[in-house]
Amino acid sequence: MTTTDNAQRSRELDTRARQVLPGGVNSNVRLLGPRVFFDRAQGCRMIDVDGNEYIDYLLGQGPNFLGHAPADILDAVDAACRRGMVYGSQHPLEVEAAELMVQALGWPEQVRFGVSGSEAVQAALRLARAATGRTRFVRFEGHYHGWFDNVLAKVEDGRAVAASEGQVTHFEDFVMLPWNDLAAVEAVLDEDDDIGAVIMEPIMFNSGSIEPRPGFLEGVRAACDARGAMLIFDEVISGFRVARGGAVERYGVVPDLATYGKAMAGGWPVSAVAGPAEIMERFGTGVVNHSGTFNASVMASAATVATLRRLLNDPPYERIRARGQRLMDGLTTLARGNDVDLNVQGVPMAFHAGFGEGPVTDYRSLGRFDTERYNDFTNALVDHGVWVANRGIWYLSAAHEESDIDETLERVEATMKATI
Ligand code: PLP
Question: Where is 152: in which H helix or E strand?
């Protein structure tokens, strides 16, 4: 029996949800996903309202890096928020969270906390504009920086176009380039002296889990320095996931500013902008506005402190990398054995799978993958108890054990045999 054979309660909830929630969801990203309603989750397993169990590789789109409901994070949040949840004022835990973050990352001097990655990106762009006195920025095809008007875009025929009706595009504010093309970045910085920042995902996790070419990050860093522009790393996915110090640690290139979210607070909604005091102090003097009722709430700060303590005292990185690699290799072997053209590539902590010829090294080539077929495949995986995003990314967590990987591969094999 598959999970869709046993989905009565999920179906009922979906009917109710569609009456009171547009599309039955609260994030448009979920419109395409299977309409399963979850009852609970622990570690790397989730149980839906009909009692079906799934091994989870979506991890809430990344935040559950330590697994679902980690006891140490829950205990810390519970103890802290019994003394009050939101003061709208200062409290010791936010100081500790910032100190640990500075320590864990190794390069910034100050951080400013927010709630979502989208907001953190806006704060970083505003700060870079203020610090450089310039208005425009360079960004890259296939990189996602949140859902706000000035950064949400699709690429059509090499041009950025609105990705939503009702969007005020502001597209004159940025130049969209193919990523990993240093000459293109240098040319734009040479000819446009109003470019205040270059923003990128230092690993293109949102499209293909593609790493920077050797020398690309260093080249962009040098080009920004030579032309007085700031380099912003959007580490909302890579931060605290690929290493404790994120992509900065992995590649040894230090940006002017970086944004963090997802993995930094063990599942709690927390984001941050980080950088040197010289830049960040613009928030401190009040010349650059960054506000937010829920910024550094007691719960958020407690969750951040507990997560960062765990990452500092018991770093899970090598274990997660090894398990991710084992899963990638296992998927590739299964695909070959079953004559399925599944390409598996990227960084083991958040790799990419798609149907088509690989490896893919740039955003445009991802277009050759058969996304409809992959969507059907992920629905079939869900039927067999593997919860995975339909857009190709597989997130690993510290809670995935060797036995979970083995069981996942068995379920994937059953899925392949049932669908080919
Ligand atoms: N930046 C990157 C690289 C992301 O992947 C995301 C979300 O997936 C965001 C920013 C936006 O973060 P949020 O969804 O928390 O607003």
Answer: none
Task: Give dist(CA 221, CA 22) in Å, integer.
Answer: 43
Interatomic CA distance for residues 260 and 188, integer angstroms: 27
Question: pLDDT band for position 62 (50/70/90)?
Answer: very high
List the one residue out of 132, 123, 130 whose CA is nearest residue 151.
123
Query: Tokens for 103?
Result: 């320590």
DSSP β-bridge partners for residue 177: 140
147 CA from centroid of ligand 1 (Å) = 8
Instruction: Dihedral sign for Cα 263, 268, 269, 270, please.
Output: negative
Q: How far is CA 178 from the centre of its chain?
A: 20
Does the annotation count 154 as an active-site position? no
User: Distance (Å, rounded) from C-alpha 41 to C-alpha 63?
Assistant: 13
Rounded to whole angstroms, how far apart are CA atoms 80 and 146?
30
**What is the end-to-end Cα distance of the chain in Å, rounded?**
18
Contact 240, 65 (CB under 8 A): yes
Note the pLDDT of residue 171: 87
Encoding tokens for residue 353? 């799978």
Q: How confident is the model at residue 33, as a pLDDT?
A: 87
The pTM assigned to this predicted structure is 0.98
Q: Which atom of ligand 1 is nearest to the CA of 146?
A: 11
206 pocket-lining for ligand 1 (C-beta < 6 Å): yes
Exposure class string for 157-166: b at 16+ Cβ within 10 A, else e: eeebeeeeee
**Cα–ligand 1 centroid distance for 138 (angstroms):** 18
List, in order, residues 6 or more apart from 33 with CB less than 8 Å away.
389, 390
- State yes or no: pLDDT of 163 exceeds 80: yes
Catalytic residue among 50, 54, 56, 144: 144
Q: What is the pLDDT of residues 101-156, one digit of tens each?
A: 999 999 999 999 999 999 999 999 999 999 999 999 999 999 999 999 999 999 98
Interatomic CA distance for residues 219 and 252, integer angstroms:
13
Single out the residue of 247, 317, 241 nearest to residue 62, CA to CA: 241
- Phi–psi pair at 263, nearest 5 degrees: -70, -10
